[in-house]
Specification:
- This protein has 3 helices and 7 strands.
- The chain is an alpha/beta fold and about 130 residues long.
- The strands form 2 sheets. A 5-stranded mixed beta sheet has the order 1-6-7-3-2.
Amino acid sequence: MIHRITSRLQFQAVMAGHTVAKTPHFALHRAPLVGQHAGHELFPHVGAWLGVVLPKRWARRAVTRNALRRQIYEVSRQLPAPLPSHAWVVRLRSEFSRQQFISATSPALKTAARAELQQLFAQLPTQGGAHA
């Protein structure tokens, strides 16, 4: 089971961690599941935690951000091996060309994003993600 990162503190903790993989449009950040804030664990459950950062700078339309978010979570669920027990954030780092992908929810955009996300997750180390 993949837990979702929802709080600002969780996102900040992961974004301060290592960038472990990059593709032309995405970056994958990783951090260990340790840390507390105000006496509470940031990541209270064991297992993989996943969050998504899609800045409006790179995806202006909400429909595009929502479509990309769904692709990220779906690709992470369909990985051949489960994500290692760390906190992960997938960050959009550049814009998909609006000239090439005119519709925010076009099948072409979804296919391109899915292929690139599969490439991103394929870059993970196979032995538990222990190194950066």
